[in-house]
Structures are given as structure tokens and as C-alpha cells.
Design goal:
Layout lengths: L5 H9 L2 E2 H12 L5 H9 L5 E4 L2 E4 L10 E9 L9 E10 L2 E9 L7 H7 L3 H4 L5 H12 L3 E4 L2 H14 L9 E3 H8 L7 H7 L10 H16 L9 H10 L4 H18 L2
Parallel strand pairs: 4-7, 7-8
Antiparallel strand pairs: 1-3, 2-3, 4-5, 5-6
Amino acid sequence: MPKRYDKIIATLQKRPVSENELLSLLLPVAGLFGDVQSELEIFKNSGIPIEIAHQHIYYRPNLTPILKETFCVVDIETNGHNPYVHTPIEIGAVKFHQGEIIETFESLIFNEEIPESITKITGIDVPMLQNAPKLPNVLEKFKLFLGDSIFVAHNVEFDYSFLSQSLEKCGFGYLYNPRLCTIKLAQKTLESPRYSLGFLNEFLGIYHQNLHRALQDSKTALEVFKIALKNIPKNLYTSKDLLEFVKNQPKGMYARTNNAKFTQNQNSNKLH
């Protein structure tokens, strides 16, 4: 994954920086003959969630309560598993803010090569994509839709890496949005025999139909996310707290202590 802004992000995660300090941090990134002001504009549009106030730049997840954060739950369908060789054939996403879906994104993507194995899983074939927009057009719209939201997905490394590589290849730059995996979040907050999206869809009583299509899978992952959020520790307040909990909490440790309460709630819901 890209390293271009990693040092700057690490600094912002620890403390706010002044506008002059940010420019000085961008100088080595821009290079000897680069334009630091142009680099600043690229930085601001790279997906890094920042707030500018009182001539200082703050890392937004450090300040934003979980309930006031904007999460973008994403799912993609592709014509293969290698982002260096294959491409997305469908993107679906939902923006979630203050307990509600505020926007949705859905698009098929033109492609002339769909393996039969992919068609069997997704139902997407070449004729369905003949009149679909081409990849650069869809990626440009998706990046604008995503903005600086926290990128959420079930097995997030696949979707995030695939889209980041595709965006870079099409000239839109890599993604730098914070990312959160609903598999890991579920593993840390809910006890389940398995954590695939299809299994959790049934196990948690979500019961969405037509899985393996991007928008529907993103909506199902959102439901997993919402259920898991009800079971996170009470001392998690900011979105940074949540990101660090998912990253650092040992798998299943918190889930085991919470499982009895979750089961009781599920049984109670069935009675109403």
C-alpha cells in the first residue's frame, strides 16, 4: 500500500499541526522540484479525514464521537482476485451517519471478460455490462462519494486494496481513508460459529436477499456493523477509539463477555 502520507498521518494522529508545519511536512513529499501548494491540495483530497480550525489541522477521528462520524460501507464485485490484473465490475456503498443511511452509491462497470465462476456467484455476465459506464468514470464518482469517510467493509483489506490500486491506475491516486473491517469488529463483539457475511446474515437475523451483489452486500455489512456497535465497550467514545479497538483488541475476548447479553436481547426481540 502507498506510503506517501504515512508519516504525516502518524503525526496528525498524535497531535494537531499548524498550517506552516503541514507545509513543511509536505515538502519532502512534493520533492525538490515539486509545488508544495499543489501537494497540499492533493493531500486535502486524498481521503484523510482532517479538520482545519484556528490555523491548525486536526485528525478528525481523534475528535469525532462514534455516533457523529460518517462511515461508508463498501462492497465490490470483481472479475478476479488480483487487483494488478483484474478490475471491479460493480461497486455498491452506503453512507451511514448518526444512525441513518444518508446516501447510497451503486454502479455496474463495463467489462468484456467475466469468468463463468464469477457469473455463477454474482449473476453478473458480460451482456449486463455492455452499456455500463467505464471504470474511470465510475471510480471518479465513487471517490467523490467516499470523500473522507471511514471506509468500512467485510474483509476490508480486499475491497480497500482493490479499489485503491484501481484508483491509482486510473490516475486518481491511492486511498488514504481510515478503514474498518466488519469481520474483525464482529469477531471482537459477537460470538458466532463463523463470520462470513452470508452466515452472519442468517445468524444475526438480518435476512437480506440477493447477496453477492455489491449494494445489497454493503447494506448487509452495515447491519452487521450496527449490531456490533451495540456491543462495543462503553469506554469507546471517538471514532479513533473504535478503530483502535478493532485493530488491537484480541479476537473474541470482549465478545465472550458480551455474548450472554446479546443472546438475551435477541431472544427478547423474538418475543415482540
